[in-house]
Amino acid sequence: MKRLSYVDLHHQGTAQAPATGPGLTRRRFLEAAGASALAVGGASGPPRPAHAAGELNYVGWDGYQAPEVVGSWEKAHDTRIKFTSLTDSGGTFTKMVAGGYRDYDVITNDVPWIQRMGAADICHFLDAATFRETFDSFYPQFAQPFEPLMWDGRITGLPTRWGWVGVNINTKHSKPEDWNSYAPVFDPANRDRIGILDFGDWATFQVILYAGINPFEPLDQNQLDEVRKVFRALFNNTRLITADLVQAQRALLDGSALIFLAGGNYIASGMRKAGNMEIVSFVPEPINGMKQGVIWLEATAVVKDPADPELAEDLLKHLVSTEAGTALAWTEWSACPVPSKSVEALLSEEQKAVIDVANMWTNYDRSLTYTVAPNIDDILRIWQEELTR
Fold first, then answer.
1. Going from the N-terminus, what domains does the chain have, and what CATH number goes with each?
2. Cys-Cys with 276: which of 34, 271, 368, 388 at CB 3.0–4.6 Å?
3. What is the mean pLDDT of the segment spanning 194-211?
4. What are the pLDDT digits (tens) for 20-58?
């Protein structure tokens, strides 16, 4: 498909103000995420509070505490998991660096924040020999050394669930072959039928990649100026910018939006699981070698100085086991791949179709793995300025 120049579209139309509503903050990040990610050095302060006997404190994304995931482990170890739901990746990291890590033994967060726990000295590093069998159970793409979870040559945590962010469309209203790139996002013929899920920095990445810029590398002023141009062109052609997942789903289902950016397979899988298999999520082909999608990846780590290191490590092994992985791959609200290759064989054909196992490695190969962008504060500032101009 011919690549449309977004430069020619700068002065067309007016940017749409963001919709209001309860929204979904599942993957939101604070605008200060870039600064908080740089926190390094030894954590100091008072000792950990006392743990109740037979209890392990765990903070993580909702779903990891489900009985199908950890119930058998609790029973086998006669241990109650005291679970705290994580709602903000960067915010939780910042609190933990400030001393909050002492409240927990185990954490599940997005990969960049787990990796940075090593730099912040709030991580219980894992011994490769202790987890050798676990590593052998992973797909080759997650084999050791898995750089996104390494810090100074040491292992900060293990990957637990993953997916991709690219194009989300409804095949009843739009053809996948029409989205071999993000060019149609800037086509005046599609004006007012483009949607964006305003999930913090996730909403910015696809069009930056389309502009030929890697947002996960340091950007100079010329590149930031180009980021502004592509954001302006995007907003000039956009019908709906919302953090309300239900609103986005409705627009995809009824065809009022041809595409939603930033949702990824995590969002699409919920609709597919409900029977709407016409909703598809995929990553366009690279442009001049620049990958066009982003891999989201959840990981689990043992926090520094856990009350019982052996018990905490054992829970970590369980979370990446075939049993727990099968449950994490098929939750109440989503259906996503996991790193354990043994899980795939246990999925039904229907489950594989919903997860889109047949295309998951194509999407993986067309994507960059998410890290905290060095210029994320600049990117989000420009995004907000262009959104409200």
1. 6-27+167-291+371-384 (3.40.190.10), 33-162+296-346 (3.40.190.10)
2. 271
3. 93
4. 333 333 333 233 233 333 333 445 556 666 566 689 999
For residues 117 and 300, what is the distance between their CA atoms, to the nearest angstrom? 11
Tokens of 359: 């295309």
d(CA 374, CA 285): 25
Backbone angles phi, psi at 85, to 5 degrees: -75, 130
Q: Please give the Cα distance from 157 to 178 (Å, whole number).
A: 39
C-alpha span between 85 and 3 (Å, rounded)? 42
The 10s digit of each residue's pLDDT in 74-120 is 999 999 999 999 988 889 999 999 999 999 999 999 999 999 999 99
The answer to whether the CB of 169 falls within 8 A of the CB of 177 is no
pLDDT at 208 over 60: yes
Which of 76, 72, 92 has its CA nearest to residue 84?
92
**pLDDT over 50 (residue 15):** no
Cβ neighbours for 383, distance < 8 A, ≥ 6 positions apart = 203, 204, 231
Q: Which two tokens stand for residue 266?
A: 């995590």
Nearest residue to 86 (alpha-carbon basis) of 55, 65, 112: 65
